[in-house]
Specification:
By secondary structure, this protein is an alpha+beta fold. It contains seven helices and eight strands, in the order E-E-H-E-H-E-E-E-E-H-E-H-H-H-H. Strand 4 and strand 5 form a beta hairpin.
């Protein structure tokens, strides 16, 4: 069995790219963790789906992962990789994948320089369900939640002002204003302008920002 040493992992209920890690995330400083090189097709399936691994494999990785600054050994963790990508998986006692983590870019690149010489391992698993893939960053999702909350509690005069700033014209009908604002594409400059105005004029200090 091959091992990787001294890396950081960020296990969450949702798989975040490294650039989307948050300062409040509880990173795990891994002292030692097993790694298995598998074929690229299996790696893609493991990344994108909740899987169940076979019991023999589960037993082979039991408490093989060690953390820094503690004698504790975590039960069921491993890395899977091909020649281009790496994913860390946490399994429960039944072999179901429950959390995943990418690696920091520099650590991933360093590991990929060595795995080319690893013998490919045939992993046995079954797919339980397709996992939701995030198409937006955490900041984008937080910004959208902020906009929704602000619009729910906004005063009519302020709503008219925001409409004029976004569309360059006046509108008195509140339903028309809200309808137009809700139709703004979240990828547009108008939506970014809407967010900035709400942020500047917010009467509540939103702690997510």
């Amino acid at each position: 069995m091959n091992y990787i040493y001294d890396i950081y992992l960020n296990f969450n209920d949702v798989l975040y790219d490294f650039f989307d890690w948050d300062k409040n995330d509880k990173l795990m400083h891994i002292k030692k963790i097993p790694i298995f090189k598998i074929n690229s097709e299996d790696l893609i399936q493991i990344i994108n789906n909740t899987i169940e691994i076979n019991k023999d494999f589960l037993s082979s990785i039991y408490r093989k992962t060690e953390l820094w600054n503690t004698a504790e050994r975590n039960d069921f963790y491993t890395l899977f990789c091909d020649d281009n990508n790496i994913i860390a998986i946490e399994f429960n006692e039944y072999g179901k994948s429950i959390k995943k983590s990418y690696l920091q870019i520099d650590e991933e690149l360093e590991i990929l320089e060595t795995v080319y010489k690893f013998k490919e391992f045939k992993v046995e698993y079954k797919i339980l369900k397709k996992e939701k893939i995030l198409l937006k960053t955490r900041k984008e999702l937080k910004d959208e939640i902020f906009v929704e909350k602000e619009l729910k509690n906004i005063e009519n005069d302020k709503l008219k002002y925001i409409y004029f700033e976004c569309f360059g014209k006046h509108e008195k009908n509140e339903k028309e204003i809200l309808s137009s604002i809700n139709k703004i594409s979240k990828n547009s400059k108008t939506y970014k302008n809407l967010y900035n105005i709400l942020k500047l004029t917010s009467t509540t200090k939103n702690k997510m920002l």
